[in-house]
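User: What would this chain look like folded?
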Amino acid sequence: MAKKKKINLKRNIDDLDLESKKSLRAIAVKYDVEKGTAPKIIATGKGRIAEKILEVAEEHRIPFYEDQTLSDLLEKLEIDDEIPPELYTLVAEVLAFVYQLDKLAKKRQLVKKRQKKN
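Assistant: Here's the prediction, encoded as structure tokens.
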């Protein structure tokens, strides 16, 4: 089984060495629960394009998730392609991770609001 690594949202791309930047890869997946369709590839890139994808994700507080095996499979898809059924389980793991982070972030915001009121 491939090693999965959660990446801190505050990861600074500038800290990567030049070799790492050249081999950097990023694939952005979007899932619209209301549409009920499969998740789609919305961006993909290597090197500087990958850096930009990660920067935009960070600006929008979208979490990163690193999985070499999954990215090898997803990079074969084109932008706007739906994730094929064979990858649903793997992508579902990523989405579950993202939803957990989202829940935690919302709880933290609620706690901060309550603390400010007191």
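Confidence is low (pLDDT under 50) at residues 1-13. If you want, I can go into more detail on any region.
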